[in-house]
Amino acid sequence: MTWHTAGVPWLVSEERVLASAEIAQQRCDRRRGLLGRDHFEGALILQPCRWVHTVGMRFSVDVAYLDDEGRVVKTVHMQRNRVGIPAWQASTVLEAEAGAFARWGLRVGDIIEIRTDDTTDGDVDDPVSNPPQR
């Protein structure tokens, strides 16, 4: 049996798949984020973004701030109903359900790639390094 994951974004660090991802590039999608969800498998990519809040959220989240090269410059665990501090060096934020970063082994200094195909030949569609044109 062959599994086809084309079109499903994946977070990859050092050739290791961390999780599936959802990319919120539109302003309305970034504003909504994870609001209204009871849980979330995988990760939500907010781009461009430098800060987040959890006001109105139903669960705690792990938050990673990525620079233009996809390097994790800061991680925080945010409880519900909190307002984060902006990370000015960040251009992208990665959100996941609390505890995900520990399971994935994600830490400051890691380089995150966002792949949207299931090839292993190095083809990368990486919105962190190549943001969409407006």
Report on this model:
Helix 1 (27-32) links the parallel strand 2 (16-24) and strand 3. The protein has a 7-stranded mixed β-sheet. It has a domain at 21-109: Sandwich (Jelly Rolls). The protein has helices at 27-32, 100-104, and strands spanning 10-13, 16-24, 43-46, 61-66, 72-78, 92-97, 113-115. The longest helix is centred in the first third of the chain and has 6 residues, at 27-32. The protein has 2 helices and 7 strands; from the N terminus they run E-E-H-E-E-E-E-H-E. It starts with 9 loop residues before the first strand and ends in a 19-residue tail after the last strand. The model is unreliable at 121-125 (pLDDT under 50). With 134 residues, the protein is mainly beta. Helix content is 8%, strand content 29%.
Order of neighbouring strands in the sheet with most strands: 5-4-6-3-2-1-7
Beta-strand residue percentage: 25-35%
Mean pLDDT, to the nearest integer, reads 79
Biggest β-sheet strands, sense, barrel: 7 strands, mixed
Kindly state the percentage of residues in helix: under 10%
Specify the overall morphology.
Answer: globular
Structural class, by secondary structure, is: mainly beta
What is the number of helices?
Answer: 2
What's the CATH first level of the domain at 21-109?
Answer: Mainly Beta
CATH topology of the domain at 21-109: Jelly Rolls
Q: What pattern of helices and strands is seen along the backbone?
A: EEHEEEEHE
Radius of gyration: 14 Å
| The CATH superfamily title of the domain at 21-109 | Protein of unknown function DUF192
Number of strands: 7
Give the second-level CATH assignment, the architecture of the domain at 21-109: Sandwich
**Poorly predicted segments:** 121-125
The N- and C-terminal alpha carbons lie at a distance of 40 Å
